[in-house]
Amino acid sequence: MRFDRVRLLFKDDFEKFKNVKILLLGVGGVGSFCLDCLYRSGVQDITVVDFDRYDITNQNRQIGSENIGEVKVEVLKKLYPGINAIKAKIDEEWVDSFDFSKYDLVLDAIDDIKAKIAIAKKVYPKLISSTGSARKCDPTKIEVASIWKTYGDPFAKKIRYELKKAGFKGDYQAIFSPEEPLCKEKGSFVGVTGSFGLTLCSYAIKRVLKS
């Protein structure tokens, strides 16, 4: 059977994967691997949101990126039958108007700082967020902590600064890496970006198991 190996690991708790509703924001280098992990683990109700199309520069790190020029969520809906796909640009306006109430977990794999802050303010009790996965090459440096306890990551530092400036008093888990950036440009290595996505999935699964 398809999920026999997953059932062997999680036993009766596997049934929880059938009922949880997960919203995944962004399906790029981090999000696409998170989606793959959730889907292969037996999570049945997954909604992905992204507006972008695949570009040739995505092919070093994104699942589905062989389909250059095609809309990411439409390609992924074919690769992962049964998922729900929303083509939308995730910005502050979208976050403000979108109904998050039907979802048990919100997984943030986007890069836009303003949108990330808006998401945190609106849904932080059920949020797990990815910070900076670019410019790094060592997946063993990846950590998970309260957003306030992240360190050594310039992107996470900027998020903390903006949260403080916005008067945010909440808390949520963040995936980050204190590894020193290897370049100034947005160079990326799938060994790290993919591992961020897998870690995001892993911590989502842990939350489901505790529910």
Task: Describe the protein in words.
With about 210 residues, the chain is an alpha/beta fold. It has a single domain (about 5-210), classed as Rossmann fold (3-Layer(aba) Sandwich), CATH 3.40.50.720. The protein is about 40% helix and about 15% strand. The protein is built from eight helices and seven strands; from the N terminus they run H-H-E-H-E-H-E-H-E-H-E-E-H-E-H. The protein has a seven-stranded mixed β-sheet with strand order 3-2-1-4-5-7-6, sandwiched between helices. Strand 4 (about 105-110), helix 6 (about 115-125) and strand 5 (about 125-130) form a beta-alpha-beta unit. The radius of gyration is 16 Å and the shape is globular. The mean pLDDT is about 95.
Top keywords for this entry?
211 residues, alpha/beta, Rossmann fold, 38% helix
Task: Please mark out the parts with pLDDT under 50 across 5 or more consecutive residues, or reply none.
Answer: none
Report the end-to-end length measured between terminal Cα atoms.
Answer: 26 Å
Envelope shape: globular
CATH homologous superfamily descriptor: NAD(P)-binding Rossmann-like Domain
Please give the CATH architecture: 3-Layer(aba) Sandwich
In short, what is this structure?
The protein is of the alpha/beta class. It is built from 8 helices and 7 strands, in the order ααβαβαβαβαββαβα.
SSE arrangement:
Blueprint: H1 4-10, H2 16-19, E1 21-25, H3 31-41, E2 45-50, H4 72-79, E3 84-87, H5 92-97, E4 105-108, H6 113-123, E5 127-130, E6 143-146, H7 154-165, E7 173-176, H8 190-210
Parallel strand pairs: 1-2, 1-4, 2-3, 4-5, 5-7
Antiparallel strand pairs: 6-7
